[in-house]
Write a structure and sequence with these properties.
Helices cover 31% and strands 6% of the residues.
Length: 519
């Protein structure tokens, strides 16, 4: 098993010799209530910014019972139809310099503003891939168009070709120089557009085609200059990047310009790892909004092909809140609930950094506090009150709270996979041999559950991926209103499991869907 230092060396070595990507596990977690007051930062006519509604103890409209109110969001704009408003009008840039200059005198808003800057712009000194390659592809190619073709969102305050979520990483050392790099930040996966088109922090980026972007950065350069080498790659992988190859073929000057961008990399990473054909096929099989974050070309490899859907970051309860509700003393972050709190999860993430010892819990605190403050935007066009009331009764009659009794509809414990019946591949996450020893160990300092948690029931109206692998595409499909499940049996993309409620009447299931979309 590789040590952390060897994995870092392997990762840095393998960063983009011919446009090679390295990706790192971004902030993870899952899914606020109705009644949105006016948006304090949006422009006239914007939908309101939702401050969340924690619910009153005993409120019959609150399915999860008494919960502690969420931390104050500092008046920041985290949901709006205006991207500039969500980015605080450019105020994020430099927020951490201002906060850490005198943290003891900083206001709560100034601390959260720093956390929000980290969310959008911090690379945590993690090794990345050369900035010039990513910005060239993003700026020059209409088939990529600032990487928006792969679901990323352009940064109105950033550099050409560098979207939100692609941030400065640790410099890459070559034989003669040090090159700036880009790596991936929290916003690449956990910032997206809601079902009604608003921008929302914590919204899983269900449009993000990480598999396609990785293939583009992995094999594009070789096929641009040696198209005959396509026979050595998985046909699905080649098909995924064919629009980019076609653009290079149609504009010969692009090849010359791209070559000049690649020249400084010669000799930079002679031992660059590559995906084998099977792995290329796996990347090509992923739909947008899913990814396996622990497989090549990343330095960490758990030897298990397990694409997971990108979860939301809304309404993550602090662990003492779960315990106060009668559950385990844990925020249960991640699909297996292996991280007990943001304070435990974030240091694990920055272990990939070249300077992980400088990222102390105190330095990461603003980001943890900011993530805890996030709440789902309300559904601005909820179902009618009568339908919601009936669905709430169905929720009670079907005893949904037996699994969703925690804060905001989350669970109070980790469930065995056979209790839910979901795709069993999840049991092997970070533990291919099921020997109880995480691989790599530093990604699971609190151990492994080998189970699955109950996701929170907030913001479901804006989501179109359900189950841990995103194999179910709507609440209707989850409740078998679109036909029986499973429709796919093969691991790891099976849509089996969670058939609770599927035997209820059609009318009851339709009402339950309406109720869940009102939360």
């Amino acid at each position: 098993m590789r040590t952390k230092a060897k994995e870092r060396k392997f990762l840095l070595r393998g960063v983009l010799y011919v446009a090679l990507i390295s990706f790192f596990v971004a902030c993870a977690a899952d899914s606020s209530g109705p009644d949105e007051p006016a948006d304090s930062s949006g422009e006239p006519g914007d939908p309101p910014n939702d401050p969340g509604d924690p619910g009153d103890p005993g409120d019959p409209g609150n399915p999860d019972g008494p919960v502690e109110e969420l931390p104050d969001d500092g008046g920041l704009t985290n949901t709006s139809s205006s991207l500039e408003a969500v980015l605080e009008g450019g105020e994020l840039l430099g927020a951490c310099d201002r906060y850490f200059a005198d943290p003891t005198s900083a206001t709560h808003r100034e601390m959260l503003l720093c956390g929000k800057e980290m969310f959008f712009y911090e690379g945590f000194d993690i090794p990345g891939f050369p900035t010039e390659i990513a910005s060239f592809l993003g700026d020059r190619l209409t088939s990529v168009a600032g990487w928006t073709a792969f679901g990323l969102i352009e940064d109105p305050y950033g550099r050409p070709g560098v979207p939100l979520g692609m941030v400065d990483g640790a410099p890459m050392q070559t034989a003669n120089d040090s090159l700036p790099t880009l790596t991936f930040g929290c916003a690449s996966c956990h910032f997206g557009r809601t079902a009604d088109g608003r921008y929302s922090v914590g919204q899983p980026n269900q449009a993000y085609d990480y598999g396609g972007q990785t293939l583009a950065l992995m094999i594009l350069a070789e096929l641009v200059f040696q198209p005959e080498m396509a026979v050595n790659h998985h046909p699905g992988a080649v098909a995924r990047i064919q629009p980019i190859l076609d653009e290079f073929e149609a504009q010969s000057e692009l090849k010359n310009d791209f070559l000049w961008v690649l020249l400084p990399l010669l000799g930079a990473a002679p031992d660059a790892p590559a995906l084998d054909i099977e792995q290329e096929g796996q990347y090509a099989s992923w739909k947008a909004g899913t990814q396996d974050p622990v497989m090549p070309p990343v330095g960490s490899d758990d030897r298990v092909h397990l694409p997971l859907k990108i979860p939301s970051l809304w309404h993550i309860p602090e662990k003492h809140t779960v315990a106060a509700s009668g559950g385990v003393d844990s925020s249960m972050i991640g699909w297996g609930g292996n991280s007990s709190s943001m304070a435990m999860m974030l240091p694990t993430f920055v272990l990939l950094s070249d300077n992980d010892t400088t990222w102390t819990s105190e330095r990461l605190h603003p980001l943890a506090a900011y993530v805890y403050s996030l709440r789902a935007p309300a559904n601005l066009t909820p179902p009618g009150a009568d339908r919601v009331a009936r669905g709430e009764q169905v929720y009670a009659d079907l005893e949904c709270a037996s699994c969703h009794a925690g804060p905001y509809g989350s669970g109070l414990r980790i469930f065995d996979l056979d209790e839910v019946g979901t795709d069993p591949r999840l049991e092997r996450f970070l533990d291919a041999d099921l020997d109880g020893i995480p691989e790599p160990e530093y990604l699971a300092p609190e151990g492994l559950s080998h189970g699955v948690k109950s996701p929170r029931l907030r913001g479901l109206w804006s989501l179109d991926m359900f189950l841990h692998n995103g194999s179910v595409t709507s609440l209707e499909a989850l409740l078998c209103l679109e036909g029986p499940r499973p429709t796919v049996e093969a691991e790891p993309l099976s849509d089996r499991g969670h058939d609770f409620g599927c035997d209820a009447s059609v009318e009851d299931r339709e009402a339950l869907v309406d109720y869940l979309r009102s939360l």
